[in-house]
Amino acid sequence: MASAVNPIGQSSTVMAGRPLHLHADRFFDSDPAIRNVARALYEETRDLPLVCPHGHVDPSLLAENAPFPEPSALLIIPDHYIFRMLHSQGVRMEDVGVPTRDGSAVETDPRIIWQRVADFWYLFRGTPSGAWLAHELHDVFGVRERLDSDSAQRIYDEIAEKLTSPEFLPRALFEQFRIEMLATTDSAVDSLPHHQKIRSSSWSYGRQRVIPSFRPDTLFRIAQHAAWSKEVRALEVVTSESITSCDALLSALAERRQFFLSMGATATDHGVMEPYTAELSPADAERLFQRALSGEATPADQRQFEAHMLMQMARMSVEDGLVMQLHPGSLRDHNQAMFEHFGPDKGADIPLATEYTRNLRPLLNRFGSNPRFRMVLFTLDESTYSRELAPLAGHYPALRLGPPWWFHDSIEGNRRYREQVSETAGIYNTAGFNDDTRAFCSIPARHDLARRMDANWIGGLVARHIVDMDDARDMARALAVDLARETYRFPTPPA
Amino acid sequence: MASAVNPIGQSSTVMAGRPLHLHADRFFDSDPAIRNVARALYEETRDLPLVCPHGHVDPSLLAENAPFPEPSALLIIPDHYIFRMLHSQGVRMEDVGVPTRDGSAVETDPRIIWQRVADFWYLFRGTPSGAWLAHELHDVFGVRERLDSDSAQRIYDEIAEKLTSPEFLPRALFEQFRIEMLATTDSAVDSLPHHQKIRSSSWSYGRQRVIPSFRPDTLFRIAQHAAWSKEVRALEVVTSESITSCDALLSALAERRQFFLSMGATATDHGVMEPYTAELSPADAERLFQRALSGEATPADQRQFEAHMLMQMARMSVEDGLVMQLHPGSLRDHNQAMFEHFGPDKGADIPLATEYTRNLRPLLNRFGSNPRFRMVLFTLDESTYSRELAPLAGHYPALRLGPPWWFHDSIEGNRRYREQVSETAGIYNTAGFNDDTRAFCSIPARHDLARRMDANWIGGLVARHIVDMDDARDMARALAVDLARETYRFPTPPA
Amino acid sequence: MASAVNPIGQSSTVMAGRPLHLHADRFFDSDPAIRNVARALYEETRDLPLVCPHGHVDPSLLAENAPFPEPSALLIIPDHYIFRMLHSQGVRMEDVGVPTRDGSAVETDPRIIWQRVADFWYLFRGTPSGAWLAHELHDVFGVRERLDSDSAQRIYDEIAEKLTSPEFLPRALFEQFRIEMLATTDSAVDSLPHHQKIRSSSWSYGRQRVIPSFRPDTLFRIAQHAAWSKEVRALEVVTSESITSCDALLSALAERRQFFLSMGATATDHGVMEPYTAELSPADAERLFQRALSGEATPADQRQFEAHMLMQMARMSVEDGLVMQLHPGSLRDHNQAMFEHFGPDKGADIPLATEYTRNLRPLLNRFGSNPRFRMVLFTLDESTYSRELAPLAGHYPALRLGPPWWFHDSIEGNRRYREQVSETAGIYNTAGFNDDTRAFCSIPARHDLARRMDANWIGGLVARHIVDMDDARDMARALAVDLARETYRFPTPPA
User: Fold this and answer.
1) Helical (H) or strand (E) element with A391
2) Residue C462 lies in a domain
3) Kind and range of the H or E element at C16?
4) In 3D, which of B405, C425, B297, C228 has the Cα closest to residue A410?
5) Which residues contact B240 (CB under 8 A, 6 or more apart)?
């Protein structure tokens, strides 16, 4: 298989046969005064367990514990971080095996897919995806040569072979990764069969460690009639209730929250285009619900309904103690043709400027000082870190800021987050780290990068005599595990 | 008194008995090429007098010159930077002695309050409040052990004792701090009795150094009828004029400005939610005024009226030479329940995204090129530094950018300001430093941090061969004192 | 001639007779681990040819090849980067020779103008203009003393003398600068006589290297009736067609694009206040066109028409292959009085917050995945780098991000761009460097600063073990020349 060279002569095979080496000091500032402290702090956090309170791992992986398929199906085809970059440079999604909605043909030879990604691997220079995959290859799969056009097939073979051995079964990796707790993200109507199976399995290490999170978004999107109706019907089935009023919807949601709680959930999650919150009168809410039922709800109706339902979800969190996560500001499926051809989550979700100060005021005024309430707030709009989010989190007791999200979960993104949030909010109004990934094998890589960057940021504080080494150690441990555990109200893990 | 430990096991007493030490190179980059230049520049500015053209010190302090009360009343209870952080972590405001509006009970034992703050002092790691208080304790009060649960009462005793001695009287500290000029912020209807008393006192050092600033905001907020009416009545009393028309209001304002000028004022100050400016016809302005009188003015009316009055204030500044400060973009009292229970300025003011380019165009088109006009513009929205503020200040002769404001008056905030403003506006379109504080004892700490960060920024320019050492010295002095003096049209200080 | 001193005692002559020296490591981080790599990478790119795909050089310079006039007319009077800074500090535009629209008197003695700029040269400390002019004086004109009040006239003499020699003729400098390709920016109705003259000249080096770019903005600004009508009439003349319908306008535009193609153009350029795109029905577009003809088009009409015409331009780019550049977000001529007195491009264009995600969706949905389409997108709103632009460029194959534009083409601006764009978009979705200048002699200085900063950024990646040195070399060359060549579809340059 010949290697590809792009139009400007760049290629992944700058020089064949380069070893894959993860430098012990990678990502740390090169200034020795910072690097040495960062290294010392990182040494204290690197081997701490991985606390994973928000992510998108498919629980069936751990329920079935079947061997992972071959390398492309494991590492490439489900990872929109990877195929979106190839797509941005003109590689057709079909050519890296991304399945189409209508079942039309895509590349099915995993070796061709793997080679194609390797040929274009230079695109990931300086990106977190590049860093994460290098970590996965090296630390999870023991690969010792760099991925490029020349090495692609050898590396494919090496991984493929390993995937057949028991140490690479999902549960074995889960234990090897030292995952303390892993929360998945699940539809409100999900009966959680995979979680059920894990909990009733003989897997003693993992039984209490894989928990669901309650995500009811579809039930609030009343302007998307077909999807909404389908979800309401599923909710009727799973609750055995008829849902013909807003009150009935709220009752069913409360019931489902109880079910999720019984399955170990500690949190809900909510994705909205804007974080608008507003309390409607019961009559107004009912009117919107009826318009939804009749298929007449407009986007403006949906905006009001979502705002109202966020208030209801906060109210229920006060009652049942589930931590409320809010992920606003993504315009999903920006590329309509791609959405129609390939479906959602294909790397075409684009952030929007997001307003928090006015939008969250109703919710925070009503619940933000309630000691039973806890909200974890995320953003894709970094301009809000210092302007809105840190001042809000530095005031309201219920509010914690989630870690840098999605595009910003990176070396420089972490730096901007710490520098722009911490002086106003302190670190104790932040929620620790989330890996937020559906790529199971990337979990250790993501925590490692975050721990390195946190150690490096604190190292910079020590090197500038802003905090001393004793405080620094406390802070590093808080960022690595303690804040995540406490924010998400995780139980003490099994010994 | 037992020390507190928070839910994740962090506490202020990581190790008891740690000495409090302010490192000579604190806040400087650890890279020696930068640090050495920064240190040399700072050595040249550290002992320059403190020029304080904008702040919120209570002038009665210096008029009465009474001993400061005990440590909690001096350093904790009035400082919303401190109690907001404790509040954000669930400490009740009452428990740190913040007085309620209805007089309901709050903690009154200052030692308990002091202990509580000490117990939670770890929250301030990496924050400017933490750095400022360390500086105050060390340099103003001679404390040599770190504040924590263990040391709290000893430090309380040490400060309490010092506060009884003559060297810690307000005027003595004012002189010891080497304050060259201190501008307070005062209501337009204030008869300035404390300033009168200072000016007619025998305090030779301070008589000419404590000046008021003219802040008429309440008179422009016509939608807040009760507060507005009260302020208008106070204006009638203080001017002995009946104010039943917009023209009468303008006349009274002009008269008050003359009074403030006679008391040494060189500036006005204006706080608005958005920096919208627009010239109304006299008839339209009058119509709004009459709606205000009758209690019918809406928020939309107020927006127009404020926009118009900013234009009038600029016009008067051209006439009387008072420098016009504009502080836009804060949504005050975001937490309604807290506002009702505790009042304003309790750490619940949250910034908004702010637009300057279109909003200020009417004002800058009319007055921005007038050599008699001077405007100092502030922001809480750092995204405007490079996008709007630096280009505006790099064009309009009347415009100077105020220093990083409020949340952004910090180590990283200063860095972002210099890096994002200076390449387009240069340093000479900036206004030097403001401490902007109501915490009198924090004034030296705030100037020291700013001088260190300015020296460090210039040190980075020298280390990268962007400016040479001769220019760097000139720049450091300009940022430390000269730009503030010149921007605010301060008289040459008494020898 | 006496030197000037500003009100705070700062002057350009801190110390007379300082040598002008460009440090070999200027702009690089002072940390040796970064600096040493940066220097090594820069050594590999510093002598590569200059690829100039977007700028505003007057083609008559190279068509006529007349000697440049004296120093002030060459370096000061046409450079709004320089005179806007003096204006911001109260220097009248007339006093630095900026011509008025009505022909009223301005300073005409070039030595007085030159001295005035030198007197105020301290204003440019820490600015890119300061760095660029130092480079021009040193490298282009061989000046070896720093510009200040004392040296001004000596330096004037030195440059004036050089300008008379053949090596300083425009074409000689073009060759000395090693310009590989220079695209100018030209009105859609321009018959390109200067380009014609260059192409038919005996100048073998430059004949194929000076190309036009197609900029039809005025034809889309239907609310500015006088300017629009004049441009439409010019279009009628140059195409010998009557333009009385929108279809006729589109035909004429297509014809002009063919003419520009025949003259070597590879790109179009579009300046709009907001990047709004929307497809109108032919009937709606025609209705707007007729309102324009009758002088009744409103700003709202123009907004729709521009949105529609951007769609048409994208469609034509798919057909004819011209790369489409989009420069949105500047509020031109913010200072109305200055615009009336001096005209456009006088340093009073102020950026606006800019929205891309929603605005560009129609255009990118229709053309963004078309392999024949290429769009280069710019911004003046740095908050969009990580929020909108990098995610868009990291998805749509047709999209490339232009380099930091205008105010942001600076040392810190380059750093922010690389740090905020690269982790999401990678470097291969960026367009390399544009000098974007009308100051011909500043071209090498601007490329040099960009190459240094790019080398320094990559140096930081190497020093932190994010990329290795082999990849770093590849990346540095891509940023210096290859990405610009490929993005703008430049032909292989003549040997």
Assistant:
1) helix A390-393
2) no
3) none
4) C425
5) none
Residues A401, A257, single domain; the answer is yes
B10 touches chain C (CB under 8 A): no
Closest CA to A455 of A406, A400, A418: A418
Structural domain harbouring B303 = 177-487
Of A46, B392, A88, give the one whose Cα is nearest residue C380: B392
A:353-372 residues touching chain C, CB 8 A cutoff: 353
A360 contacts A328 by C-beta, under 8 angstroms:
no
Domain termination site, one of A120, A136, A167: A167
Chain A: closest CA distance from residue C487 (Å): 10
Q: Are strands C186-187 and C50-52 parallel, antiparallel or unpaired?
A: unpaired
Residue A179: inside a domain: yes
Whether chain C has a CB inside 8 Å of the CB on A15: the answer is yes
Pairing of β B399-401 and β B375-377 = parallel
Q: Split chain B (495 residues) into runs of 10 and give each run's mean pLDDT.
A: 58 86 98 98 98 98 97 94 97 96 96 98 97 98 97 98 97 98 98 98 97 98 97 98 98 98 98 98 98 98 98 98 98 97 95 98 98 98 98 98 98 98 98 97 98 98 97 98 98 73
Pair type for strands A330-331 and A350-351 = antiparallel
- How far apart, in whole angstroms, are the C-alpha atoms of residue A272 and residue B116? 39
Q: Is residue C160 part of a domain?
A: yes
The Cα of B339 is separated from the nearest Cα of chain C by a number of Å equal to 32
Does residue B404 sit in the same domain as residue B303?
yes
Same domain, B157 and B240: no
Beta bridge partners of B376: B325, B400
The answer to whether the Cβ–Cβ distance between B411 and A475 falls below 8 Å is no
3-state secondary structure at position A323: strand
Domain containing residue C104: CATH number:
1.10.2020.10
The Cα–Cα gap between B52 and C193 comes to: 61
Backbone angles phi, psi at A394, to 5 degrees: -80, 0
Tokens (6 digits) for B146: 């770190």
CA dihedral C408, C409, C414, C416 (to 10 degrees): 0
DSSP A202-266: S-TTTTTTEE--EE-HHHH-TTSHHHHHHHHHHHHHHHT----SHHHHHHHHHHHHHHHHHTT--
In C273-336 the beta strands, taken as DSSP E runs, fall at 323-328, 330-331
- What does the pLDDT look like over A433-477, one tens digit per residue? 999 999 999 999 999 999 999 999 999 999 999 999 999 999 999
Query: How many angstroms separate the CA atoms of C345 and C84, rounded?
Result: 10
Its pTM stands at 0.97
Name the phi and psi angles at A326, rounded to 5.
-130, 120
- Beta carbons of C62 and C171 less than 8 angstroms apart: yes
* pLDDT (tens digit per residue) in C407-417: 999 999 999 99
**Cβ contact, residue pair B369, C89, below 8 Å:** no
Contacts of A206 (CB under 8 A, 6+ apart): A62, A171, A174, A175, A198
- β-sheet bridge partners, residue C51: C181
| Beta-carbon contacts below 8 Å between A and C | 151
CA C361 to chain centre: 26
What total of structural domains would you count in chain B? Answer: 2
Q: Read off the tokens for A292.
A: 């939804």
Task: Give the helix/strand (H/E) hosting C237.
Answer: helix C225-239
Q: Strand order of the sheet with strand A375-377?
A: A186-187, A214-215, A267-272, A323-328, A375-377, A399-401
Rounded Cα–Cα distance for residues A405 and A381 (Å): 10
From C142, C139, C87, select the one nearest C117 (Cα to Cα): C87
Q: How far is B87 from A369, CA to CA, in rounded Å?
A: 9
- Residues A438 and A56: their CA atoms lie apart, in Å, by 4
Contact call for A395 and B347, based on CB within 8 A? yes
> C256 with C189: CB under 8 angstroms?
yes
